Each structure stands twice: as structure tokens, then as C-alpha cells.
Records
---
Amino acid sequence: MNGKLILAIESSCDETSAAVLFGTRVLSNEVVTQLQHAQYGGVVPEIASRAHQTMITAVVDAALKSARKELKNVQAIAVTQGPGLMGSLLVGISFAKSLSLALDIPLVGVNHMQAHILAHLAEDCDKQPVFPFLNLTVSGGHTQLVVVHSPTHMEVVGETIDDAAGEAFDKAAKVLGLDYPGGPLLDKLAQSGDAMKFSFPIPKVVGLNFSFSGLKTSLLYFLRDSQKVNQNFIEEERANLCASFQHTVVTYLLRQIDRGREATGMKQIAICGGVSANSELRKQLVEYGKKNEVEVFIPPFKYCTDNAAMIGLAAHFLLLENQISDLKMVPLSRYPI
Ligand code: KG4
Ligand code: ZN
């Protein structure tokens, strides 16, 4: 494999991450999650960018150490250009620009959403999809069905018209009394609950787009009405509520995947983004693959949530096409793929 030694940096939201890759081989992938946002119930942009500033040098050092490489060996610097929080992106981009300038090596700005998808091409994934394939990206800020023609040519065929899937999980978790970010906690609690105990309406958006805000409101109204009858309703039914809500979201995601498969004729289906860590989604997708004779691709947990390895992978493919950025590169809070 034709590849350079890449140092990659991710700082788009609340994870400070650095990775070292040789081509598609991930040599190290250090991720520090900022826990200080939990007390505010969501990511506070100002705190996030300050925390990135505090951590970035140590995280880059750790990534180089665990890859047993030195800065002088690095042949290219990759960094998330967007989408993300401006102040957070700026920290990673400024750091990457300085390294590129000091070491006189190419700088590669990466689209975070493309990178989530390209995580599937890491050498240490069980198997890699072959282009073209259909991908469902489900993260805290995005929900997209994407036809992935090549590492640098991707086509969004459906996306959310309101909240993202991760946001729906986090908001549901919040009203159910769980800490932020609630998605993983809701998933954990759901495992001891009955998914059939309560039912919530599947959103009715036509075509391949998604909507989660009605589902969130229906949970809210259901809790309000139930609490009028029993004040301790949430406490007593928390696990069943988590399991039922999760079941509805996952059933909905699978229905949209199915529609996407029919519309595009794709025979390989991949998922990525933070919500692809969800145990019910992973389970239902495997069952879906067996039932419909399509090959499914589920990333290892380490490549589901934000990480710099995926940024390095995307940069590897950009470098192969000679798509290099320069020092004028600016962060993009919105960055369509
Ligand atoms: O991709 P990601 O790390 O960051 C963004 O780019 O947004 O996704 C974070 C989202 C959060 O909303 C988090 O609650 C959700 O992914 N998440 C989960 C699980 N693990 C992470 N949602 C449901 N179940 C999980 N196991
Ligand atoms: Zn992400």
C-alpha cells in the first residue's frame, strides 16, 4: 500500500484526539473525552476550545509515543476542517498548521463526516466494504444516508430535517433523568428493560430523510401524562422506557436503511458515527443483513465515536489524489460532504 506516515488531529467537538497512521494502518489513536461538559447537560463551546488547548500537546505526544515515532518521521499532518464548533476546530487547525510549517510537510484538511465513513477502511477493521456502498451516519450532530462512490466522492441521499439520532438519544436520556451524554447510558439501561412495554410512533417522513423531533415530543407528552397518574413513573419504569424508546429509534433507522437499499440497489450497508456504538442498532443491523442477504459493516467501538484515526484515514486517500490544503485553510462550522 502506497502510504505516508500521517499525524492526524481531531478537535471538532468534545474529544481531543491524535493518531499516527501509515497509510490505512493505524499505529496509535489517542482520545481524551472532555468530561467537564456533563455538569452543564451539553457541550459548552468555550469550555471545549479551552480544554482542547490544554490537552492537545499531550495528546499528540502520547500518539507519537505509542506509535513509537518521532515528529521528524512524520510525512503529513491531517486535521479536521469541519463541520464542528469553530473555537474547537481552530485549536486543532492552528496546531496542525504550525506543525506543517515547522516540519515543512503537507497539511491536509479533512471533512469530519467523510472521515466517519472512511473509518471502515482501517486495516484493523474485521472487513472493509468495497466501493460503492450505502452508509448510515448517525452521530450527535448528523444523521445521513450516504452512497459512498469512492473515498472522496460521496452522495447524501437522505438526512434529518430536524434533530440528529444522537441528539434524540441524548434528549430522551435527559428527560429520563440520565446524565449527559445520555446515549450510551440509555443503551446500557435498556439492556435490562422490556422494549415492548411502551410504544412510540415511528416518524412519518416520506422518502429517505429522517425526523426525530416528533418522537422526542411524544416521549415527553407520554411521560407528562403518566406522571400525573404516578409521580414515580419514570423512576419505576426507567429501564423499560429506555428499551422501548431505543427500540423505536433503531426500528426507524433500519426502515430508512431498507428504503435506501431499495432506492439505490446497494448490496453492502455500513453504519458509522457515535450512535453506531448502540448495541440494539448493531444487533438489528446484523439480523437485517442475514434476512436480506446484504453484507453489513459495523465499525469497532474505537472508531464509532470521534477519533483522529478516521481523520488520518481520510487524509491518506486525499493525499493519494494530491488534494492538499495550505496555510490559508479556515475552519468550517458547516461542511457538506
Ligand atoms: O460521532 P460522535 O462521537 O460525535 C459527533 O460527531 O457528534 O457522536 C456522539 C453521539 C452522542 O449523541 C452520543 O450520545 C451518541 O453518539 N452515542 C450513543 C451511543 N454511544 C454514543 N447513542 C446511543 N447508544 C450508544 N451506545
Ligand atoms: Zn463525529
---
Amino acid sequence: MSGNIHSVLQETRTFPPAADFVRQANISGDEQYQKLWQRAKDDPAGFWGELAKEHLVWSKPFDKALEGTMPETKWFTGGKLNASVNCVDKHLTTWRKNKAAIIWEGEPGDTRVLTYQDLHREVCQFANVLKKLGVKTGDRVTLYMPMIPELAIAMLACARLGATHSIIFGGFSADAVSDRNNDAKAKVVVTADGGWRRGKEVPLKKAVDDSLAKSPTVEKVVVVRRTGSDVSMVPDRDYWWHDLMKDASSECDPVEVDSEHPLYILYTSGSTGKPKGVLHTTAGYLLGTQMTSKWVFDLKDEDTYWCTADIGWVTGHSYIVYGPLQNGATAIMYEGAPNWPDEGRFWEIIEKYKVSIFYTAPTAIRAFIKWGDHWPNKFDLSSLRLLGSVGEPINPEAWMWYHKVIGAERCPIVDTWWQTETGAIMISPLPGVTATKPGSCTKPLPGIVPDIVNEKGESLGPNQGGLLVMRQPWPSMLRTLYGDHARFKETYFGKLQGLYFAGDGARKDEDGYIWVMGRVDDVLNVAGHRLSTMEVESALVSHPKVAEAAVVGFPHDIKGEGICCFVTLKQGEGNDALKAELTAHVRKQIGALATPDSIRFAAAVPKTRSGKIMRRLLRDIAAGKEQVGDTTTLEDYAVLAKLRDTEE
Ligand code: WT7
């Protein structure tokens, strides 16, 4: 980890918010922002406490807004509430009762609309189903599902009972599912026969069957019929969703839980060891997602809001389900791929539903650019009023394209920096406040106090690259890594005393704008998703022919970072057939999202004298900045390494 990072990006264009946007915005003008930000910094407990009183529905009011210091902070202690009440029930006594909560579009073109009343009925019914299957307050439930309304229903049903959901993205393999089932000690798995992706079926139930051979804690499986294909159903273990729902009552009293009761676990990659079970608790997470949805997306009742993320990632948790629903918003949920049946699908959906707020990822934007302007240009996108980006730094070219071709130079762009661990958006433009600069996530939201520091935790000056940290706690931050509190403290608070360390490098420019430069640890950001080099390396080494592996990222036009694997064999030589075999092996171990982009056989992996893989050298080779032969030997590396500075 290096404290001083050299930054090469120079961007001078700025885009101030339009006057008519400012006039109607939920936070408008720099003065209002400055006041809020300063107030929150000086008195975080007072600031968040007032918001929590006003914007959360409590069954018992809290005593104290904030207790303790990082990493052991507790928010809204003494209070009791229920997340499903805050997302659904609270709207039933208002005109929003019959408002669309979720407008769902399946990949094949089928649709479903759930009003808040519909959602309430189904959430209660499914909560009763879970109860009947033995789920109790505090139990963990795995959700391994396609992007169908039943996923949101299952999340809220867990929350209604005070059970903790653990969602596993449908692109993960059976092995990844059993690892997570075991770590969370999940009692029930909810899945579907399959889901649709690019016209093909993702066989989810099959993966669950394979995972259950290695998941001893799982007692019951509920299966949604989505694709209608044949799946095996084990008697007394597997049940169809529709069978169980038929007899379930639509009344289910919500379980009042403590503010700090676990709401969900979401696994994310770290630089060492197995995936980390990031734990979010109830009240703070709800407040963070609710307020940031209002502030950053300027969410209004009239909006049709669409976040294209999969609910298997934190973006979907926070900004398809918990944030928008608490705000009584109408959210679009789309099951499938952006290029199915053709590359116009997203723009067709925007035109069809008159989407006003659109939130997607830079990797998707780069794919849109590649597919050509004629796709979006075929559709009427004039309903759009705000655009968002998340997952990785957005390159200025992609930002400008988004601004011109999708936003017609009219829509503000919010480039939102946050993490699975932060629960909610931390650094982002406010659309009625901030003059944006392409490529910068700009400034911290009220209540967020970031800094750029060196390895000693000392603040750095303007344009000095360093480590991105948080100096103050915030309500939606993770509370622990499930079952491993020591790792939680070490990972996020162990390097810099008293500061939350995000793992990103960044700089602040002369105007105080933050420019995130990417991860400084051994974590790849592939298509906006975190993958640890270590996990891919151990997947490779688990193949019988592999002796050693080193995995690095390299610049990739669409995915941001591609996965390059240097592999040393136990014996013999590598060939294309073995490359294909290793690729399939990694996919089986982790899932399709970890598919290597390039595999290079090497006679040895270069290491420093202390035994660390020389990643910087390998990264340069992977990026084509250093040329080596087909089969690289240690001697080749030694020559290269000598030509450059030291690696450590
Ligand atoms: C990492 C978090 C937040 C939901 C999706 C990813 C990178 C995220 C930005 C942004 C620059 C960004 C960071 C961060 N990242 N958003 N707007 N600009 N970098 O969640 O999988 O927990 O990954 O994604 O490196 O640490 P995640």
C-alpha cells in the first residue's frame, strides 16, 4: 500500500446546475448545502437524530442518536422499529396506497406492477410462509434469485420477521453459494427455477441443488416458478413459492426490532481470505438510504426512477429497494440484459415508462458508446431529468457521452462514490447544488467527513494523491463482518488509527473536489464489481495441474478492469485447451463474473525477496507496457525488474 499516488488526470470543464433545476431541488444552492454539512460535522448526533425522528417510523423512540466512537459505534439506541413498515406500511394510510411501488419488466417482455398495497399483501403472505418454514427473528435466509418482484418481496418479508437476509448475486456459482450459506449459517434458501439473461436461462435451482450438498445448515428451499423449466424438487425440503403463498394469510404483524438489529449480510471481496460478510443494521441503514435517495436523486413523487443494478449487489439493495420505497417512489425493476433482444432495450424501457431518473454504471455506459449512438437516438428520452453513475471512476469521455447523448446536455449527472460497506452514497454531487466536473464524484454529502491522508493518517494538501478515509461515523456504515469482528477492525480501522479506511486512493483538487483513483489494495474492479485477486488465484491453484498463480487487472475498454492470470504449471506446457479448462474451472469456483480475460503460462511467478508477488511488474506486462515472450521465465522477469525501480 503506497500513501503517495501520482495522479495524471487533468480535467477543467465544469457544469453548473441549471437555474430551473436548482429552484425545484430537494437541496438547493451552495448556501443550504454548506449549512447542512457544517451542522452535521459539528454535531453528528444532533443532525442525524433530528432526521431519524422526522423520517423514520418508530414503534419506540430511541434514547440516544449516537453512542461510542469508530469502530464501535451504535446509532439510535433504545429505539424499536421495523424496516418493512418503513418501506411499505407507512404509505398505506396515505394517497400512495395505490401508487406503483415497483414496475417490473421481465427480459422476455412480460410485465407486472405492484402498488404499495399489493406489496404489503405479498410481503405479509411471504413472511407467514417463512414463519411456517421455521424462520425466526435473528435467523439468516439466503436469497439467490433473478431480478423478479419476488426478490424484493422476500427481502421485505425477512425484514418483517426480523430475519437477516443474505442475497447472493445470480452470477455466482454453486460453490460460492455454499460458502456463503455456511458462513451465514442460513436456515432457508429462496430461489427460482431459473432467470432470463440474454435469452438464455440461468439455472439457479440447479446451482442451489449442487450447493446444498455442502450446506448442512439449510433446512428448506422455496422455489419461484419463473422460466417453467424442469427442476428437481426434493420432498420435505423444496417447496414451490406459489403453493405456499396460496394458503398464506395476508396479515402479519411486523416484529419490532432494536435499531441495531441486523437487517442484512452482503458478501463482498477483500484482498485476503474468504469473502467478507458485511453486516448492516436496521435504523441507521434505513435513514442513510432514505436521505441519500432524496438528496442525491432529488426523488419526488412524480418521478419514475430506474436503477439498473442487480439487487444481488449493494446498489440494488439500497437504491432499488430500501431507499426508493421509504420515499414512496415508483421504481422500475428490469430482469435482463441491456442488449436483449437488441441494444436498444434500455432506451426502449425509458421511453415506454417515461423514466425521469436513470442510475447506471460506467461499464454499461462504455458498452452503450461501443454499440453506437443510433440506439439511444431511436428513442424519445425527453422524460429524463437526472442521470447517475456508480461502481468505479467514470472516465471523462464516458461522462461527456452520457451528458450529451443520453442527457441531451440538460440532465445533471450524479457520480456517486460509496461502497458495500458504507451502505449509502457518501460522496456525490447534489444536483441542485454542485457544479460537476467530469470524472470527479465531487463533494461529501451532509454528515460525511472524508479526508485524503498519507500512511500516517496526516491530511494531505490539494492535488496530493493519498488514501481516502472517513473521519466521522455515519448511520449506514457496516457494523461488523459477520462472524469475524477482528477482521472488521483490522480491515477498515487497523491501518489508520481512528479513521475508516475505504481501500481507495484519491486526491482533492484546489476546489475541494474529490477524484477517486481506484483501489490501492489487491482488489480488482471488474465491470463495477469488486473481485479479489486472491480469490481468483486460489480458484486457479485448486486446479490439479496448477502450481502457482498470480492475478492482476489490466485496462479493459468495457469492463474497466480485465482479469489477467499468470499461471505456473506443475509439469508440462500450457496450451489453448488448458486455457479453456482453467477458464471453466474459475467460472465453476466463483462464477461467470470472474471469467479470466487472459491466461498466460509462465515458468515462474516473479517475487520480491520477501516473497511478495511483483504485481506492479505483472500489471505492466498485462497492460502491454512491458513485452515478454510466450513462456516467461523468472530470468525474464529479473531482467525487467532490474530495468525499473524496486517493487516494494
Ligand atoms: C468500490 C466499492 C457502491 C456500489 C457499487 C460498488 C469503487 C464505487 C465509485 C465512483 C469511483 C467508485 C471504489 C469503491 N467505486 N463508486 N463513483 N467513483 N470509484 O460497490 O462493490 O462495494 O465497490 O467501487 O473503488 O471502493 P462495491
---
Amino acid sequence: MCGIVGYVGHRQVSSFLLEGLRRLEYRGYDSAGIAVSRDGDIQIRKKSGRVSEVARLVEQKPIHGTTGIGHTRWATHGVTSDTNSHPHIGGNGQVVLVHNGVIENYTTLKTHLQELGYVFQTTTDTEVIAHLIEFCFNEQIKLGDDPTAPSTCVKAVEVALTQLKGTYGLAILFQDVPDLLITARLGSPLVIGIGDKEHFLASDATPLIGYTDEVVYLADREIAVLTADSLEIIHRDDGRQTPAIHIIDKSPGDIDLGGFEHYMLKEIFEQPQTIENAMRGRLDDDEATAKFGGLNLDAQTLRRIDRIVLTGCGTSWHAGLVGEYVLEEFARIPTEVEYASELRYRNPPMANTTMIFAITQSGETADTLAAIRECKRKGHPTLAICNVVGSTIAREADGGIYLHAGPEIGVASTKAFTSQVMVLIQLALFMARMRHMSFPAGQRIINQLKAMPSMVGKALKCHEQVRDISQKYAEFNNFLYLGRLYNFPTALEGALKLKEISYVHAEGYPAAEMKHGPIALVDERTPSIFVIPQGHIYPKVISNLEEIKARGGPVIAIACEGDDRIADLADDVIFVPSVEEYLQPLVTVIPLQLLSYHIALCRGCNVDRPRNLAKSVTVE
Ligand code: F6R
């Protein structure tokens, strides 16, 4: 969580910092701030609330300079307040920094620094880093180092970092050494952009779009020393590194609203395209299979795989559950989906024929990263299904599959879910065709997959109807989301969407399991959303629906076009195109995404920036 930006070069830096923070607001939006260095003076503007609040401050009281840092916060330690907002100042103002991460030993360090006379202004863990670096800087000077030399600052940072336990992405300015920006990483992502006589810094590449397409990803335990003309990277154990330059292929159009009112709506409507992108170049008609460039495992190893563990969090976990069903159905490989936060500490037995897949939109989720690191440590091939190119998980996994869904900026994940499902289905086809699946069966699946962008386009036609239905139900405070087999993960996902952006209590449940407890919740003020497209247990789900109706619960059904029976049973029906059962999550999730969007709007909620959430959860 938290977004960091930085710059050193020739531009007036405030506008880049503020624009960059706006682009990173999805990472946290409790408070924001910037610091700009000029002629031995560092000016700070910071405030609780959104980046726009800080922009207003800067407008009232501009700050000039060509070196600066900025931060948008998702609070971990210390309440949201102007004082606790970053940047933080060390000692008597020599060091100013911003931080993404958590310092686990901050209380011990704080006590020690207080004993040395440092006075703390905030209740954050970050402030200890600022004081600690300043303390180390002063110690260097006592040893005779030049206080205006960049090397003194670097040494101070290096020594201070050895004392920190936890995670950090840091951007640091020194008052007496203007035009120098030091950055360091352990566990929190940082990307350096290379321009013409300028360097940019950000938590991910989004703020750099339109400024440069050449980037260097900082690795854990690396410190980068940036000036307008130079970039030096030093690894704590391995010394100086040659920067590996990557090219990002995003344009400003990828990150604007494109005429939509919110990113979430834009991203919902992008799904026909993003599903297409998830298939592009991957379907092999001649071999009736899917192919992936980046798995980095040979056919022999892949054939030996006899168990698959999928791991992720939140929406990515829900996509994993669809993956579990489809991998077992197509490839007949025993598959489990594990919450990454559990897997990282659970130590379940795994043979070296178990393949682990991390599923993650951002590629930065702390629990998912820790889970695959733990599996890697034990010698298992770890792969990633990931959206953000160059993210930590994408780089640390042994291989993987990108979603190619483009930046997902709305905090509630939408297009990533359908892309993840599409990738997992293709993975199941690929693994199945290496085993028992016949050529015609493979061909049939390929043809069904190719029709999906248009099917999802048709599903989106329910938009107006969903908007009307939302008005009817917006005042309700409890919802049940029910589905069976492939529609159970969709029910979970629908409930999660409603909770996170509407702040309405919703429970996703297997439709038949509902009678073992949650049915007690049913009354005329608790609507049940049934995900009930046609399938081999359709009549069973109808019975579950009748059980709700018999207890007076309102029912909204997400059903297949051509279902004549459902209108008599449900209070409201939203129809989606009829597709094979394993493909149903791709169409049935669309009205659920739209429903949560419109209910959130009716309730006056901030759809793209829901309270308490952040897009990348980089803390445990
Ligand atoms: C829900 C949502 C979260 C994420 C979860 C994992 O809309 O966005 O539940 O799915 O935090 O994030 P990634 O996929 O980036 O690992």
C-alpha cells in the first residue's frame, strides 16, 4: 500500500509529483504530501485526505524546485491526520523521506532514538527511519565525512537500513545535498524511469507514462542514487549493479477515463477486449490446444505434474476457484486453491510434482508474494498469472502468464477477474491436451473460447436494466449471493464487489449450503441474488431458490437467455447469453459487477476509492 513518487532533473517538480500521486491514489488515499528541495531548503506540503487537497495547498502556497518526492498514504501505523501524512522529517530537518511498508521493530528503535534526544512529532513507524538516517548521517560527519557529499548520504542510508526489520520502499532527500534523490527497497516495489537528463521514481510505472518508457525495476536490498545525470544502483550484499533497462508499452490513453464516469465502469466495459487480449496468440488451432510463451517448464516436467496449487487473495482467489474446477474437469489434475495468507504459514505437504501458481492482478500482494517465496524455498516450480508486467511476483516467479488486461485502476477488481478466469481455462486446456483430452474436444473448446469476447459484449447489454434494478434494492442492508458449481465462485465475487464498494453486508454461499445456516437470515429485507444459468444441476438450484421464496426473501436471478421458467419464480431477472457451464463465470459476473457499481452510486459511495481499501495490499 501507499504510493511513492520522486523526481530529479530540470522540470519544476510539483506538477509531476501531484499528477503522479493522482495516478497512484489507488494504492492509498488516506492522506498525501510532497516535498521539494531547492538551494538547501526542503519545503513540504501535506494533508490528510485526497491528493486534490494537497494540490489545493500547493496552489495557495506554491513550491519551486527540480528535485522532490511525494506520497499517498494507506495508514498502517498511526491514525490518518495531517501530522502523520508523509513526508516525514528527521532530527533537525537534514533528512526528509517517504515510505511504503511496515517497520516491525519501530518501537525499539523509537525508544533508542528518544534516549538519544530525538523528538517524535508523529505516531507513524516511518518517522523512526527519518531520525535513524539523520543520526547515521551525523555519525558519518563525526568520522570526518563531508556533509555535502552524496557519498556521506549514501553511507548514512546504508547503515540505517541494516537496523530496520520489516519492509520498505523509500525515497529520501537530504537538505544539504540538493539535486540528489536516494531510494531503497525491501519488499515494497519501486520503479525508476530514465529520461533525458532526468530521473523519475514511482511505486509502479503508471506515473511515468507519458514521461519515459525506459524503466529499471529496483530489487530488494538495492539502493539507487539518482541525480539528473546519473543512476547508480548498489546491492547491499553484491555491491554495484548494472541497471537492467526495460521498456514499458503503455500510453496515456491506458490510464484516462475514456469518457466513463469511473474507472470501475470503464474497466467493466473493457472486458470484451481484455478477454480477447488474454487469448491473443495463445490458441493453437492446429494442435487444438493453448500455448504459453513464459511457462519455462519443458513438456516432460509438465506431464509429471500430478497436483496443482493455486494461490491468491480476494478476487484473484475467486478466479482461482474457477481454475480449480476447470483444471480438475479438463485436465483431471487434483487442484486446490489456497488463500495466500494461509499458505504462507501452513506448510502443507507438497511433492516436487506439485505446480504452484500465484494469481495476482498487481503482482505485489504481500501475502501472495510470501506464499510463492515459501514454496520456492522448498524447491517447487512457482509460476504466476499476473497483470502488471515487471511486478515483483512476475519477476520472482520461475515463469508465468500475463493477463494483458492493461492497467486496472478502479480499486474493485473487475477486468482482472475475467482475464484470470480466461487464462486458467486455457491453462486447463493446455494441461488436458498433454494428457487425455482428444483433438476434437480441444477444438470444440477453442471455438467456444473464441466466442467469449462477443458473449461478454452481449452480457454488457444488461447495463440499463441493472441500473433500474439497483435503484429498487439500493436501500437494503443485507444480501445473499448464491450459486452452485461454476457459479459459486461468481456468487463469492458478486458479494465481495457489493461489500467493498457499497459497504453493504453480502454473503456468497453455495446455493445448497445456504440451508445449513444462512437461510436463517432470509426475510423480506434480505434479497438473494441467484446465479442460475442453465446447467446440469439447474433444477436443483431452482429448488434452492424456491426455499428462499417460501420464506419471503426477494430473489434476483441471473439467468440464461431463453429461460422461460425463471420469470415466474424470481422478483427480477437479468438475462445473460447462454454459454457452456465452465464459461458461465465470464458472463454471469458482468451483471454482478454492474449491480454493485450502481448500488454504490445510489448510496453515494466513492466507487473508485472505497473507504479503508487500497489496490495493492503490500502489507501482511
Ligand atoms: C477485490 C480486490 C482484492 C484483490 C486482492 C488481490 O476487488 O481487488 O480482493 O483481488 O487484494 O490483489 P492482487 O490480485 O493484486 O494480488
---
Amino acid sequence: MTEAQNEPSVTIEALMDEQRVFPPSKEFVAQANINAASVYEDGKDYETFWENQADSLLWRKKWTKTLDWSNPPFAKWFVDGKLNVTESCLDRHLENNGDKVAYYFVGEPGDERTVTYRQLYEEVCQLANGLASLGVSKGDRVAIYMGMTVELPVALLACARLGAPHSVVFGGFSSDALMDRINDAEAKVLITCDESWRNGNKIALKSYADSALEKTPSIEHVVVVKRTGTAVPMIQGRDIYYHELIKDQPKERPATETDSEDTLFILYTSGTTGKPKGIVHTTGGYLLGASFTHKNVFDIKDDDVYWCTADIGWVTGHSYIVYGPLANGTTSVLYEGVPNYPDKDRYWAIIEKYKVNQLYTAPTSIRTFMKWGTEFPERHDMSSLRLIGTVGEPINPEAWIWYNKYIGGGRAPIVDTWWQTETGHIMISPLPGVTTTKPGSATVPLPGIGADIVDEEGNPVPWGGGGYLVLTHPWPGMLRTIFKDPQRFVDTYWGRFSKPEENRWVYFAGDGAKRDVDGYYWLLGRVDDVMNVSGHRISTLEVESALVDHQDVAEAAVVGRNDPITGQAIAAFVTLKGHVQGNEQLIAELREHVAAKIGKIARPASIVFTDELPKTRSGKIMRRLLRDISEQRQLGDVTTLANADVVNDIAARAAAMQTSQED
Ligand code: WTA
């Protein structure tokens, strides 16, 4: 961590001065699922705490030991317990709640589909039977690359029914990114769709998949959901349409028994190297963590309509659209598209129509809504909203207050939830019936979760100070390893602050944070080479490799600079090969090149050409300096640079040259 990307900055100091507090209302407390502060006391004995919650799941065979932490940092929760997550998410609701709605699907073009728990169960069984007929069995990996339609949660659950780990690849990723992930997971089957709808456009997922599949030897079959109906090439013997695959399949299929520690899914996320990591989540502990936090952080009641706007391609969708809500028998909205199609009030229209009670969305969206103006939410009656939440990045107090006022009607508590792909479920967040909130703070660790702030040496920093956010003991939904790379798991997450000789194991989250004098956590962003663009993690190295992959590029450095809407924006500095002249056209070409290599979310917002990159005498690129340049800050001492004179030149060029990032 020599090249800190996000050090505490001035805005954070301002944030820490935030004095407003929002205690839960009497009315909310009276009806809350959890309303006694004593729950935090209960959580201190975390093993017992989680064990006491675990009866909320349907187990086939009870565990013999709650936590096995004898081989840290490799944890086992609910040792010897047997279950299949789909029995908790589907089967057990059938008897009393078979006709209850699981998903109100809202297609971007305006089509709708209501799916009850029984219908969901039947379609999951049919697809599980279909996948089994293609040779998928327990332990086989299945890759999923789809838009947000009902068939997407069905696909995840059908894999889970078979005990086949799924690896969902976000539909916004490119062919190359899909190919890398399929190959790393050695997936046997890919489930995709013809095209998906986004912002009124058709996104050609099958065609992207076909390019990826030219170099994915492990894939035997491709299942294709018809979404837009556009004819797509189908390769005989390999490709089959979803509706044809499930057509004659029985609507029942016994769930495959899995162990509490069998892998439920792999989800790739960016780290500090160019290669994405396959985060491995297992079964019992993960489902418990996702369902407990879903129920209690969002204060879910049986009749609620809940809506998480994330894409299932990210962990938020896994835990809070699929597994958490379904385990709790909740009715969710599942929306396919963007918030401004056909107009900027789409979210608010959906909330009014379905009388949504809980909304869970991202700060970047909230800032976008602020920019669009209050007229859009004001068009709709959103009095059904009882609670609103955020995830993905720090929320600035201004956006928090706007969200509270214009979306929550000044009435709905806000839960700012901090967690990660690796943690599996929410870790730091208010309990809405207990915790007084402060705009901009994720508040305190949930009961049963241990967090701390430490300094460079790993010593706890007293309240009032800042440092590195760490997690101090195991939790049920924790990642178990990195797929095929346990050593990287140990080094990346446990290497920095653990003291194995004292048997002290500390998970380092990669985030900086401060803790105020009341013990509230204020997240400061990543302290490694990971950017957070619109709540999505992108590694600087990944973007750099994509740029260098272009024939005209000699060298590239990428930093995340602050952006009022997307949190961070990607700023790239590129040196070209000797004979090449940089111009607008090449900038456009490079941005598209990155989009093709990784996905549009990774396209740099600005590219500056420079004859040299600022480097230390040992040859390291000074990213911190580039960030200062990008944010037009006064430049500090540059005397350690090997090529100090290059800095002014870059700064001048950067000021002159900025392109804006499209969606
Ligand atoms: C950031 C998303 C501040 C953080 C669930 C973390 C947040 C990374 C918050 C994980 C929050 C997430 N406040 N920062 N409430 N929630 N983050 O893996 O930097 O996509 O490390 O998981 O997002 O992103 P990931």
C-alpha cells in the first residue's frame, strides 16, 4: 500500500463536522423488528449470537459446531450442517405462501410479470432439470451473463438447487472480461440472453458471449433466454433456448443436499492486481448473514414490498435481491432498466404503483436524482416508503439530507450500509429501530460483527481518530477463499494486520475510515489501487493493462479522481509510442478500447497524453501526484521525482483536456 489512492481529504474533515443527528421516531421504534439496544450486548458473544439466529433457516441436518476457527483465516460455519438454500428460499414458503408474490418484474419497455413463490419454485425446478439434462451436477460451475429479468434469479436458484456454484458476470462487462471469468472458474455451462434492454437500446449479450466463447474450452452448452426476440445465431449442439430447455421439464426437482461449507457461488471482483479475484461464498453462513441483515436492517414485515435497485451481477443483487429476500419470503420489485427511461421519474412511478415500502439504492444514483431536480419525485405519491437505504460508497451529507427529505418524506429512516463482495452481507449499518443516524456515517457494526480502526502498525486508534478499517473476528457470510488461490486470500485480506504468532487474525477491508467520539464509523474510501466509480469497484491496474494493450500506447497510469456524481471518475495518463500523435480521435479510440477490454463502466472519463509519466527514482509511477493533478490541487514536493519537470507539463495538459464519461 505504498501508493495510497484515497487519503483522508478535506471534504472528509467537513463530513466529520456533521452535527445533525436523527434518532428513530417513536412510531418506528414501536413496530421495529429489533428495538432494544441490548441486541448489541448479545452480539458480543458472536458465536452464540449467530447460532441463535440460525434456526431461521431450513436445515436438513443440524450442525455439530457453530464455528470452526482452528485453521485461521479459513473459517467453517455450522460445521456438518446440511441444507440446500433453495429449500429455505422456496420450498418452505409453498404451503402457506405459495401464492404470495416473490417478484413484481418491471421490464424497461413497460412489460410486467408477477411471479408467485410457487411459480418461482416451479420454474427453478424446471431449469434445474434442464441444466441437469445438459450434464450439470453438484460442484460444476455455471456462468451467468444476463440482463435483469425473472430468468436471472431463476438461473441462480436453479444452480443452487443442483449444488452447482454459479458465477454471475455483470451484463455490462465486455467479451474479454466474460472470457477471463469463465476460464478462471472453468464453467461448464453459460446462461445468457439474446439481448437485454438498457436505456431503450438492445444490448447484444449473446453476440458478446459468442466472442468470449471462442476462447473458453470448458463451456459445453449455452442456454439462451429470449428477451428482445431478436434472432441470434445458435450453434447446433451447443446452444439451446431457455424456453425450449425447460418446456417439457417436470416442475419438481428434489434439491441436492449440500454441506454448510459447500460453495454456493463465486463472484469476481477487482483487487489490487490486474487480475480479478474469484470471491468464494459458501452456503449456511452466507444465507444466514444475508437473511438476518435483510430482515433487520430493512425492518421487513410479511406484507412489505421491498425494492433493491442493484443489478444481480453485483454482490448487492445476490444478497439483497435473491438470497436474503427470498429466504425471508419477501415480495420484491425486480426492475430491468435505467432510472431515466422513458423519463427521469421511472423509479418514483414504480414506487407509487407497487406501493414500495423499502428502497435500497446507491449514493451515485441519489446524486444524479438531485441533479435532475425535485420535480420528478414530486410527481408521485411515495408515502408508502417506510425505510430507505444506500450502499456502495460513502454518501455525502448533502445527498443524505436530500434523500431523507425528497424520497423519505422526512419520515423514513435511512440505513447507510457498509459491506463488500467479500463480506457477503451488511456489516456496518444502523438498526433502524435502535440506532440514531448521522448523515454521512454508516454508524456502527451490526450485532455479531467485530470492527475496529487501526494505525499502520495494526494498533487500535482511539475514538476520534482515523486509520484502516478492519474486521476483528469471523462472521457467517465471510468469503472463504479466493477461487484456486488460497494464498492470495491469506495475503490480500489477512496479511497486513494479523499477528499469527499471537493467534490474532484481523481482516483488512481495504477502506480507510474515521471513528468519531461516539464510536460512529465514517468511511473514507479505498486506500488501495481500487477505484469506486458509481459504486463499482475497478482496479487501476486493470484499466492500465487495457490501455497498454492498445497498439499505440507505450505506458499508462490511471487514478480515480473525485467526481460529484459518480464518486470517483477514471483519469488516465498515457504516453504514446514514438511515432504516434495524440489527438481527440485517439482519445475516443482508447476509451472504446478499454470498454471493449473490460466494459463501459471502466472507460476513462479523461485521457491526457504526456511524453513521460512522473516517476520516483526507483521507477514507480507517482499515482498520488497524478491524482493531485486530476483534482487540480496544489502540487506538493516533487523533488523525489526522477523527472520533476514533466509534472508541470502534465498539469497544464490535464487542465486543458478533459472528456466526459458517458453512461
Ligand atoms: C465501498 C458493495 C462507504 C467500500 C456492497 C467497500 C462503501 C466497497 C459503502 C465494496 C458505504 C460499500 N459507505 N463505502 N455504505 N458500501 N462501500 O465489493 O469502499 O462492490 O470496500 O460491495 O464499496 O464494494 P463491493
